[in-house]
Amino acid sequence: MGHGYDIHRLAEGLPLMIGGVPVPSEQGAVGHSDADVLLHAIVDAILGALNAGDIGRHYPDTDPAWRGADSARFARETAARARDAGWEPVNLDATVLLERPKLAEHVPSIEQRVAECLDLEAERVNVKAATNEGLDAVGEGRAIACHAVVLLARRHR
Question: Strand 87-97 vs strand 125-130: parallel, antiparallel, or unpaired?
Answer without folding.
Answer: parallel
